């Protein structure tokens, strides 16, 4: 198995392509109502709660009602082009799904993310005037280098395997179906990484840590997307495109941790480094087990 894919690479063009990709990635995650706009993490139960900076009181309803919001006179939300007023039940949400109804506070856009994570219902209000958005300085990275593109062989399981992983928030776990593993070699050593489904059909996603984690890169996790393997199972892991998950930037994320075995003993000196700034919680969060 060849460890790297450096043959006939135009290094200048490689760097330009990486820069274009990373600029687009930075723009996407700094969306005015994206993760950088989250102002809190709330574990929802039957007792109604109000969300600072957002309209309504929120609770878990009975049966199929799912999340219920009670909006006062003059308050409203919008979802899929429809205006919501008064009492509204959003219905039950499948695991890992979410809805994000929007609102306007004066001239400021906002939204409330309703999500199901690890069997618990969470609310995350977002506001486009969050200071972190304006102050975000960008994420430092290693200089892109083709040597960190490695050939990998995908070994599918007979059937996807439910794989439990931890989360960035204590008391929460996630379960993902793993379709198989990716095998690659680096400087004579052989490594295996459990892969999850990627964004596009056939694509894969790897959550991992390595010997740089907690030193130059974020301690808990990084992720890298992998193109769908060819007919013989071959693909490429480009560690230059290893990126931080939202939990590297905010205490209000519930990101999955890498599965057992995805903690590489080598230093992957490629991709994104530890962010320079972070949104931290100043209030104690209610533990999921208590709020359920």
Topology at a glance:
Elements: H1 11-29, E1 42-43, E2 49-50, E3 57-60, E4 67-70, E5 77-79, E6 82-84, E7 87-89, E8 98-99, E9 102-105, E10 108-117, E11 120-127, H2 131-135, E12 149-166, E13 173-186, E14 189-197, E15 204-208, E16 222-226, E17 234-238, H3 288-291
Antiparallel strand pairs: 1-11, 2-3, 3-4, 4-7, 5-6, 8-10, 9-10, 10-11, 12-13, 12-17, 13-14, 14-15, 15-16
Task: Provide a brief overview of the structure.
The protein is mainly β and 292 residues long.
What is the end-to-end distance?
49 Å
Proportion in helices = under 10%
Order of helices and strands: HEEEEEEEEEEEHEEEEEEH
Quick one: overall form?
globular
Low-confidence stretches: 283-292
Radius of gyration: 21 Å
Based on helices, strands and strand pairing, what is the structural class? mainly beta
Number-wise, the strands total 17
Query: Taking all residues together, what is the mean pLDDT?
Result: 93
The proportion of residues in beta strands is 25-35%
Strand order of the largest sheet: 16-15-14-13-12-17
Give the helix tally.
3
**The number of domains:** 2
Q: Largest sheet, if any?
A: 6 strands, antiparallel
